[in-house]
TrEMBL record:
Top-rank lineage group of the source organism: Bacteria
Signal peptide as annotated in the record: 1-40
One Pfam family from the record: DUF1501
Sorted UniProt keywords: Signal
Source organism (scientific name): Undibacterium baiyunense
Key word Repressor present: no
Alphabetical list of InterPro entries matching this protein: DUF1501 (IPR010869), TAT_signal (IPR006311)
Name assigned to this protein: DUF1501 domain-containing protein
Length: 481
């Protein structure tokens, strides 16, 4: 704070923004955090905009068939395990073979090793080669840095309910098992919402309810593929009457002495106000606004098909295009794709899912290059997350629940064309194998999120607040952005 001199006018301006949050359903904090005020004032004076987009892969993506080591020793280990499991081969064709894995060459070469991506991720390979995509190797929930010996002896605190789908989805998004109240996307929103004239548009999901976006004061705003969701019947004709809509509005928004009715009316009024504000602010979908996604090619059938994930990202882009009308400086978005719990159908199902991921991310990157005439690639960062990685071996029904996994970070601010971290040994019974080739993470989700949060504008103190375990790790910023 010693280098920041907040004027009285700027302090009052930010205070008024915090106060106005209540008008759109975001409660103002009891006391203003001075670090937040300083951060907000500096960012607004800079006239900047930043957005984080979380792409969650529900069901647990098999990382070992997504990013692969292809040097001879690694590839031989890969083939020896993944072509002899009980469920049949899930090994992918080699580099250069028909439909083979796609080679990549990271800038930070790891001695004696070479790498590739899944055959159905050519667009993401192109983004990697262009320097706009990076890979974080072997990240997952950790409480403290943990060795295999410590894990087996349970001599250090371990994340709760490991290997459980629902709990690990929650742990990735909210540092606690299923039932967690606050996610780290929402908590970042809490601290930076004062940058936005309308804080209700700080945390936005295009994929239903997600604990990732739940804050203590910020409430996630959910949108559909067509944008803001209106309450049916309030406009136009209702039951053949042009007057019925206004009558319905009066019924559902009228004040009451009954506390439940009063709160329902207030919530409904805020929803109506938000929809009326967002709908005209969003860019249109199509030639006059945000281009519609092309279809992707289903690798199993060769047929063209619509990509619902790309449509979610189009919705995000349409909202970003309306950032000035919404008074938004900092926004956190959530999109998702399910179906990654593929079991012994992995070879076909994952191929289709990763084709959709690659196609959708490339569409989003291209779209961000021209958002209604503005190139926002430097200001928007997309990152992937998933329940957990997979075992390297099969349990007789495909790969089983794992722990650490590899993830992608994409955007103009990303220090791309690199794999961050030491890529784990391919095979079994190594120093990171907690069983059946499941990886003990080398990086924590806290470190992953803290790196993104630092770019997003959080101060070191705020990083400590949002990521409760970060003080246990020496590396707070992993350097990929």
């Amino acid at each position: 704070m010693s280098n920041f001199n907040t004027s009285r006018r700027e302090f009052l301006r930010i205070s008024s923004l915090l106060g106005s949050a209540g008008a759109l359903g975001v409660a103002a904090p009891f006391a203003i955090n001075l670090a937040t005020v300083a951060s907000a004032a500096a960012q607004n004076n800079a006239g900047d905009y930043k957005a984080l987009v979380c792409l969650f892969l529900y069901g647990a993506n098999d990382h070992a068939n997504t990013v692969l080591a292809t040097d001879s020793e690694s590839w031989n280990q890969y083939l020896s395990v993944r072509t002899t499991n009980e469920a049949g081969s899930i090994a992918l064709p080699a580099v250069g073979a028909t439909g083979g894995v796609l080679p990549i060459t990271p800038n930070n070469a790891q001695a004696g090793r070479s790498f590739a991506l899944h055959p159905n991720m050519p667009e993401l390979r192109n983004l990697f080669n262009a320097g706009r995509a990076a890979i974080l190797a072997n990240v997952g929930p950790l409480v403290v840095p943990t060795t295999l010996t410590q894990y087996k002896a349970a001599s250090v605190p371990l994340p709760p309910k490991l290997f459980s789908h629902n709990d690990q989805q929650s742990l990735w998004q909210a540092y606690a098992p299923e039932g967690a109240a606050y996610g780290w996307g929402g908590r970042m929103g809490d601290l930076l919402a004062s940058n936005n004239s309308n804080p209700i548009f700080t945390a936005i999901s295009a994929s239903g309810n997600a604990v990732f976006l739940s804050g203590r004061t910020v409430k996630q705003y959910q949108v559909g593929s067509s944008g803001a969701v209106a309450i049916a019947g309030l406009s136009g004709s209702l039951y053949g009457s042009t007057m019925a809509g206004s009558t319905l509005r009066n019924i559902i928004t009228s004040d009451s002495t009954n506390y439940f009715q009063k709160e329902h009316a207030a919530t409904t009024s805020r929803a109506i106000a938000a929809q009326n504000m967002l709908a005209p602010a969003m860019a249109a979908a199509g030639p006059t606004g945000i281009p519609n996604p092309t279809q992707y090619t289903n690798p199993n059938t060769g047929a063209l098909a619509n990509n619902a994930l790309a449509v979610q990202l189009q919705t995000v882009a349409r909202i970003i295009a309306g950032r000035n009308a919404l008074g938004a400086k900092r926004q956190v978005f959530f999109v998702s794709l399910g179906g990654f719990d593929t079991h012994d159908s992995q070879r076909t199902l994952q191929a289709d899912l990763l084709a959709r991921v690659s196609h959708a991310i490339a569409y989003f990157d291209t779209t961000m290059a021209n958002v209604m005439g503005s190139d926002l690639r430097q200001q928007v960062t997309l990152f992937t997350a998933s329940d957990f990685g997979r075992t390297f071996t099969s349990n007789g029904d495909g790969t089983d629940h794992g722990w650490g996994s590899h993830h992608f970070i994409v955007g103009g601010a990303v220090k791309g064309k690199d794999i961050y971290g030491s890529f784990p040994v391919t095979g079994l019974k190594h120093t990171l194998d907690v069983g059946s080739g499941s990886l003990l993470p080398q990086f924590s989700v806290d470190q992953y999120g803290a790196t993104l949060g630092t770019w997003f504008g959080l101060s070191p103190t705020q990083i400590n607040d949002v990521f409760p375990n970060i003080t246990n790790f020496s590396a707070r910023n992993l350097g990929f952005i």
